[in-house]
Amino acid sequence: MNRNEFLRCSALTVAGGMILPLMGCTSTSTGPGLQVDDPGLRQNWAGNYTYRAENLYEPATVEEVQQLVNRLGKQKALGSRHCFNNIADSPLNQISTRKLNRFLKLDAESGTATVQAGARYGDFAENLHQQGFALHNLASLPHITVAGACATATHGSGVTNGNLATSVRSLNLVKSDGELVTIDRNHPDFPAVVVGLGAFGVVTQLTLEVQPTFEVRQDVFVDLPLASATDHFDAIMSAGYSVSLFTDWQDKKVSEVWVKRRMDQHPEDLGDDFYGATAATENMHPIASLSNEAVSDQMGRPGPWYDRLPHFRMGFTPSAGRELQAEYFVPRDRAVEAILAVEAMREEIHPPLFITEIRTIAADEFWASPCYGRDSVAIHFTLKQEEAAVMALLPRIEAALAPFGVRPHWGKLFTIDAATLRQRYPRLEEFVALARTYDPGAKFRNAYLDERLFT
Ligand SMILES: Cc1cc2nc3c(=O)[nH]c(=O)nc-3n(C[C@H](O)[C@H](O)[C@H](O)COP(=O)(O)OP(=O)(O)OC[C@H]3O[C@@H](n4cnc5c(N)ncnc54)[C@H](O)[C@@H]3O)c2cc1C
């Protein structure tokens, strides 16, 4: 939009008493919703994907969301842009939840906290803690929105911890005709809509289960022999409330083991020798050669759950920064076989790899969740931004993990085709059928959903 168009649009909207459309006058002058022109928001967090949507809206109220959804054609909700693929894109419009970011209420009696969809975990976790409550788990970073995380079944770690969506008690959703509906655990569509990939509408708020707050100590051990990791896999992954293994698959070892233990359950020191790994002597980044500035505190120093469960601290760039990610879920009882299958590819994997992380996630009942119906182990790859090399490597990893019925993380890179996805996610066809009833005009469909689910 040039300067004249901008001024014309502004004048129109001020005169009409509407919220300012900053660009795209023709598409916004007849309705509400702030449309923004910030080049930084036109890419995902990693910068590997540029959104194709022509218009980006930032409604500040639920009513504005309803009016936008009703008025616009093709559209997709956008959270904090942390996915590595085109899942949050739309051929026409994106509806960002950046301004729907408030902590709405804590209900101590029912053990719930209600937040707006665009609230990032790091925005309200400390407040929750100060009021005496905690969420059950967090992802490696606190920078992501609650709705965006739940929509893709984002997870942390822990053999008894389900993914973040498992804490959802209910959500409010704007359907394609603008109707606002509440869907709670008693609603038959709940297991489809919560991990909804943005296919059912725009979530405006979520009510999450909370529990009394707790402290966590984080201990890191280095150089775990791979043989020890595979021989004692279950014991190692159960050694804490949340455990992560980091490896670059070189030298038959796991370079770091991060053990996060609740002080109210296992406050004791694990000593210096952990299944052959030795206790780190300072805070470690998962990629040992990188600065430890951004990581959450370790060395067994207790701290509140929100400051220990994520690997990275709010206010710092998480992970490696310029990177790509892929992640694959296998049944936990096949984890050792799967890990060895990947390890056999170590020479191929090494060149584009920064680091692999291995975590556990408890089974859940969400139709599109990678952990649907099975306790899982996630094998994650943080990769260099060498797209050609990465996209050549992923099908090879997917083939190696195919015998284990591997399911991909929806928000990361993968190449598994629609027919295979349908085999691997037993309720995916029902998911698609139900999404069609919520969105008969296919407003929320985009290239990602069309190619991978709706074919
Ligand atoms: C550095 C880094 C670390 C990560 N660590 C982890 C990790 O530890 N564990 C893990 O599982 N994943 C991890 N991820 C992946 C990330 O958690 C997911 O990609 C998550 O979906 C990102 O949330 P977002 O708010 O950025 O969503 P976006 O990328 O903006 O959107 C994701 C999807 O959610 C939908 N969506 C967003 N908001 C709404 C809404 N209000 N209503 C309906 N649909 C909506 C979008 O349409 C889209 O389909 C990581 C990513 C990065 C970049």
| Number of DSSP-assigned strands | 20
- Give the percentage of residues in beta strands: 15-25%
- Alpha-beta classification: alpha+beta
Could you describe the largest sheet, including whether it forms a barrel?
A: 10 strands, antiparallel
* Helix share, percent: 10-25%
By DSSP (H or I, 4+ residues per run), the number of helices equals 14
The overall number of domains is 3
Mean pLDDT score, rounded?
Answer: 91
Shape: globular
Please write the CATH class name of the largest domain. Alpha Beta
CATH topology of the largest domain: Alpha-Beta Plaits
Poorly predicted tracts of residues: 1-30
**CATH architecture annotation of the largest domain:** 2-Layer Sandwich
User: What are the distinct ligands in this entry?
Assistant: flavin-adenine dinucleotide
Radius of gyration: 22 Å
Kindly report how far apart the N and C termini lie. 36 Å
Strand-helix topology:
Blueprint: H1 3-16, H2 25-28, E1 55-57, H3 62-71, E2 75-78, E3 93-96, E4 103-107, E5 112-116, H4 121-130, E6 133-134, H5 146-151, E7 168-174, E8 180-184, H6 190-193, E9 202-209, E10 211-212, E11 215-225, H7 226-231, H8 233-237, E12 242-247, E13 253-262, E14 273-274, E15 277-279, E16 303-304, E17 324-331, H9 335-343, H10 346-349, E18 353-361, E19 376-383, H11 387-401, E20 407-408, H12 418-424, H13 428-438, H14 447-452
Parallel strand pairs: 1-3, 2-3
Antiparallel strand pairs: 4-5, 5-9, 6-10, 7-8, 7-9, 11-13, 11-15, 11-16, 12-13, 12-18, 14-15, 17-19, 17-20, 18-19
Bound molecules: flavin-adenine dinucleotide (FAD).
Keywords: FAD, Flavoprotein, Oxidoreductase
GO molecular function: D-arabinono-1,4-lactone oxidase activity; FAD binding; L-gulono-1,4-lactone dehydrogenase activity
GO cellular component, one term: membrane
